[in-house]
Amino acid sequence: MELLKDMSLFVEVCKVMSFRKAAENLEMPSSTLSRRISHLEEEIGLRLLHRTTRKVELTEAGSIYFERCKRIVSEAKLAHEQLGEMLSKPSGILRISLPVDFGTIFLTPLLVEFAEHYPGINFEIDLTPRLVDLVAQNIDVVIRMGNLPDSHLIAHKLMQFQGQLFASPEYLEQHGIPQHPNALVNHECLSFPNNMHWKLSNKGEVVDVTIGSRFVLNNVGMTKQLAILGKGVIFTPYDVVRDDVNNTRLVPILPEWFGDALPVYALTETRLLPAKVRVFLEFLKTRLVSNSGITSEI
C-alpha cells in the first residue's frame, strides 16, 4: 500500500514536473513529497528524477517507470471508484461504437431510458460495423455481433439472436408457402452480401440451402421494408420484425426452423471498468433480455 501511494505521488510530480506545484496540488509540504520520492528511488535502486533549483527532469529509468505507474495508479483509482459513491452517481462522457442496425433498432430506446437514470452521463456514439481501436480512438465500449476475431479485448456477452423466416402475406399469396427449407431455392430471398447460404435447424435436422436473390444489401431496415413490400423472404431475428408480425405486415414461415445463435458482445479494453461503463453494461444485459426474451450470457 505504501509503495502504491509513493507511486501515486511520483505520478503527480511527473505530471507537472515540479515538486512545489505537485505539493500544492496534493496539499502536502514539498519537503515531505521530496522525501517520499527519494524513498521510492531507494526502494527501486535507481534515480528517477534529476533535481535542480530550476527544474525537474525524468531520467531514462524514470520515463519508463512513469509510463507503467500511470496505468497502475489509474486502475487503482478506478477500483476505488467502483466501491465508492461514484458508482451510484456515475458521470462523464460515454463513448460507444456499434453497428448501425443494432443501434437504430435495439439501442436507441434503451439509451433514452439509460440517460434518464444517469443524468450525469453524456454520450458520443460512433455507428460503424468495423472494429475500432479503443485506445487510439478513446472508445469506452464497442458492441459487435457474431463470432469475434482473436484480440486482447475483453468480451462481455450481452445476448444472442436466432434468425427465423418471414414474408409478407402478399408475397406468400403470390408465390406460395414453403413447406421445408429446401423449397427456398424456388423463392426470392432477401440477403446480405456474402450470405447466400442459409443454415436452419429443427430438432437435430440441419439444412444448408443456397438461396437466390434479386436484392442483396447490407441494411436490416431496408431489407425488412423490401420484405413488407412483397419482394421476398427475410431471414432475421423475431425481435427485428416483432411489430410487423403483430400488425400482420409480415408472417412467420416454417416457425419451427431456426438459424444458428448469433451472439452480441460488448468489448472493452480491460475488466477494470469505470463506473459509467460498468453501469451501462449491467443495464444493457438486464434490459435487452427483459425487452426481448432473448437468451443472455450463459
UniProtKB/TrEMBL annotation:
Keyword Transcription regulation: yes
Species in which this protein is naturally found: Acinetobacter marinus
GO BP terms: DNA-templated transcription
This protein's name: DNA-binding transcriptional regulator, LysR family
Alphabetized GO MF terms: DNA-binding transcription factor activity; sequence-specific DNA binding
Gene3D superfamilies: 3.40.190.290, Winged helix-like DNA-binding domain superfamily/Winged helix DNA-binding domain
Keywords recorded for this protein, A-Z: DNA-binding, Transcription, Transcription regulation
Record family assignment: Belongs to the LysR transcriptional regulatory family.
Domain HTH lysR-type as annotated: residue spans: 1-59
